[in-house]
Design a protein that fits this description.
single chain, mainly alpha, 4 helices, about 0% strand
Length: about 130
């Protein structure tokens, strides 16, 4: 089997979230590589995976911060539109609910982005993360 095909298979397995030790065992058993060769291949792919997860973390963090800013501006506009204390209409309740929805999404994306950015680790396939 060609070396670049083995590299591609290792890369795919790492990106899909398989455990590194399982991949090393698979390479030794199925592809007849030495343990040292297998570890080097897997470590390179794991570094690439962590870099991609950190990149996704930056994107999630920026999306979360933007949502928080939008929620803050919309929240200010909604509450500034209350001229006097009165019985809030249904429309105003919907506006507040929309602001809270954006706020919750922004908090979620900010936290997920920080975790991915700082740790570089995440479960599952990289392609399923957004």
């Amino acid at each position: 089997m060609r070396r670049d095909q083995i590299d591609d298979e290792v890369y795919a397995k790492v990106m899909w979230g398989d455990a590194p030790q399982d991949i090393v065992n698979w390479l030794v058993r199925e592809k007849r590589l030495t343990s040292a060769q297998a570890k080097v291949l897997v470590e390179d792919s794991v570094k690439e995976r962590r870099a991609e997860i950190r990149e996704l973390g930056i994107k999630n963090l920026l999306l979360g911060i933007c949502c928080l800013i939008v929620a803050g501006i919309l929240g200010f506009l909604v509450f500034a539109s209350y001229d006097e204390p009165r019985n809030p209409a249904r429309r105003e309740g919907t506006e507040i609910g929309f602001v809270l929805l954006i706020l919750g999404f922004g908090i979620h994306k900010t936290v997920v982005g920080l975790i991915r950015l700082l740790s570089g680790r995440s479960d599952g396939s990289v392609s399923d993360m957004w």
